[in-house]
Amino acid sequence: MTETALLVLLNLTWQIAALALLALGLAIVFGLLRILNMAHGEFVMLGAYAHVLTAQLGLPPLMAVPLCLALVGLAALLVERLVVRHLYDRMFDSLLATWALSILMREAVELVWGRAYRNVALPVEGVTELGLVGYPTYRLLVIAAIAGFFLVLWVWYRRSLTGVRLRAMVSNPALARASGINTARLSAMAFVTGCLCAGMAGLILAPVMAVEPNMGLDALIRSFFALVVGGLGTLEGLAIGVAVVGGLQAGLSAALSQTAGYLGVLILAILFLWRRPDGIYRRR
Amino acid sequence: MLSLRDISVGYGDTLVLRDVSLALQPGQVLGVIGRNGTGKSTLARLIGGELRPATGQITLEGRDIAAMPPWVRARAGIAVMPQTDMVFDALTVAENLALMGRVDLGEAGERFPRITERLTQLAGSMSGGERKILGFVRAMLAPARLVVLDEPSEGVQAENIAHMQALVAAARVRGVAVVLMEQNIAMVEALADVVIGLDSGGIIYHATGDQIDRADMLEAISL
Fold this sequence. Notes:
The complex is a heterodimer. By secondary structure, chain A is mainly alpha-helical.
C-alpha cells in the first residue's frame, strides 16, 4: 500500500468515526423517542464550549469532561422536563420546539462568549508513525475510543435488561407500561443520554473543529444526512449511514474538492429522501 | 380484591361504559362477555390503567388506583394481556418473557412447547395464534395477583385453548384473580365463577356459580 493510499484510508476512517460520534445523539433521540432534535447541534456546540469555560475558570483541561457532562446534562434535563416531555408523539411540534430551542441556545452562547472563533488545544500532541506514514496521535486515539464505545453500546443495547426495556418501549409503549416499565423515566433518560452523546462529541471534536456559536448547524445537517442514508432509528442504520456518507464525503474531498464532498452528500441524501426514505437499513 | 363502583369510562367525550359496578375476590374468575364494541377491551384498559374513569371509583385491595399509572399497577400486581398488540414484535420470545422477570416457564413451557422451541425467534415473525399464546403466557407468568386477559382464545387452536384453561385454573388455585374477556362462551363457562355481559354501555347480564348458563350467555351476547 502506498503512502497516499494509507493516508486516504486513515482520513476516511477519521471522517467516518467523527461523523459517527456527531450523529449518535441524534440517532438515539430519534430512534427511541421519534423526536427529531433540531437542537442536537447546539448540544454539540455546548460540549465544545466546555473547553472555553474550563479555560476561563482556570481549571485543568481534563476538568472539561465533568464540566461538559454537568452543563449538557443539566440543560438536557431541563429541556426534557419543560419542553420535550409534553411533545412525545407530536413529531412536528417537537421539531418546531427544538428548532426554537436551538436558536435560543445559539443566542445565549453568543451573549456569553461572543461570536469569535475559539481555538482549543489538542489534549494529546504529536504524531504516531504507522509504517509508511505518520498520523496525529489524538485522531488515532479518538478513532479507537469511538470504535470501542460503539461496540460496548451495541452489546449493551442488545444484551442488557435496560436495553431490552428500551427496545420494548419503542416496539409497543402501551404494553411496556403494562409490563411495569416506567416509560416516562426511560424516555427522559434516553433524551438526556442522546444530548450527552452530542455534548461529548463536541468536547472530543472541539480541538479539530472551529468552535463558534453556529458550529452546531453543520453537525446537525451532517448527522441528519447520515441517518437518512443509513436508516433512521437503529444503531445498525447509523453505522451504515456514517460509513456511506463519511466515506463519500472524504473520498470526493480527497479526489476533487471539499465543495464536491458536500455536494455529493447532499445529492445522495436527496436521492434517499426521494426514493428510499427508510434508508438502507430498515427497522425490523 | 378488585372493586369498580359506578364507573363511567370512554374516549374523550364518548363514554363506552356507564355506571358499571363489579367486585372480584382472590382466586375468582370473572368472565366478561359481549359482542365486539360493547366495552370489553375498554374495561381491560381501565383496569390496566391505560384509561382513567370519567366518574366512579376503582380500588385494588381497598386502595384507590384511579390515578395510578399502568406501570405502577403492573408492579402492584396487575398483569394485562391486551386483545391486540399483546407481544413486543421487535423482541425475541425470550426477551418478551424476560420482561416479566421469568426465565423458567414451568407448566406453561410444558403445555406450550412451541414457545420454548422458539426462544430466539422474533415475536413479530410468529403466526397470529402463536403470538396470542405468547401474550397469554407473558401475562400468566407475571408475578401478579390479578390477571386481565382480553380475548386470549381468539385465533387459537382448540387444543391450545384447553391448555390455556388449565393454566387459568391453576392460577385460580394459587389465589390469583382473573378477569377473562371472551366471546368463547365454552371457555367462560368452564372457568368463570362470575359472569357479566356487556351491551349498550352497561351490564345486561350477571350470573354467579350455578346460575351461569350457556344458553343465557349466548342470548345475552346476541342481543
